[in-house]
Amino acid sequence: MLKRWIIRTRALATEGNPLEDKLIVISGKRIESILPASAARRFSGKAFISGQRYLVFPGLVDIHCHGGGGVDVHSLGGLLATSYFHASHGTSALLLTIFFEGLKELTRMAELIREARPLAPLRLLGLHLEGPYINPEIRGAIPHETLRNIRTPDVRKLVDAACGELKMVTIAPEVPGAEGAIKAFREAGVVVAMGHSLATTNEARAGVDWGANSVTHLGNAMRPFHQRDPGLVGTALTEQRLMAEIVADGNHLAPETLNMFFRAKVGDLILVSDCRWVGGMPEGEHQQGTREKLLVQNGVARRPDGTLAGAIHPLWKGVTTMAALPEVSIFAAVRMATRNPAKLLGKKNLGRISVGGRMDLILAGPDYSLRRVFVGGEEVFRAANEPPLPV
Ligand SMILES: [Zn+2]
Question: For residue 121, is the peptide bond before it cis, meaning its omega torsion is within 30 degrees of 0?
């Protein structure tokens, strides 16, 4: 017989309104049922994972994450260590985001994802390629040598080199040849996000007409909003065919900006970590082999020349930053990091709690501190004062 555990909930995130005061019955690695709290007497006290009542959320889905934990993701050990770093902070599915270092390296990274997938403590969804077809004038921390001019036949080569693992690409719609590239990526089933772009409103609109369906870290690495030419920012906020990522780490966007984006686009906003390999590392300078030197400074990653190079927090930080805004509930914030990214990727069963579904769960305290995290039924994180699982 499969082992059964019971979780007492304070509130439980669902598709609609949160459910209060329920029991979640876990059988093996799956959610067997969700029952009213009054059903507790049907179970032995030993089956309850603790005496606590938790806020329960689905595991987070991070579609823009470069690394974390101080390791290099370009090796099996590094990719697994990065996966543990994010899983232990509540992320249960991750789209590894990389720059373009040539077709051979792209194939190697796709193979690495396949090798790591059965071993990783979270679901590795594939690759998000940030570039190579972005605007060099607003490349931010993306190395210049990873950028390319568009030749439409190259797009097919790139998709093929990724062996089915390329799920998303970031592209600037104003670069020459973008029409052919966006159409070719979409034909290959790849999500096209516009970003690292100085697009005018007309150029951003053209990108949407060619098939672009998302925006990469809205508000960062794009032309600032102008009232008569709102550009990619204004297009993202008003165009229903676009979803949009935001980095809500407390540094990339001001609280007022987060609030404005939330009001304009709540159902189509996607929280992403944009976490770099220095994620979780202390303030100061960090060197990754011969590859890259980054500074962790005042809560963000910077290149030695001061350019903002991404974030240093796992996705749960984005959830709690959003939930700290007066207008945003913790449940709305979690939806932006679960259902919304799953919707963009077209994955129905991801980022939700459902009876019969996988046990990808976050158990949090009333202050939103992480208490326990389960991915695929395995406990990947337990806070120090939580009891071990019943045996
Ligand atoms: Zn970027």
Answer: no
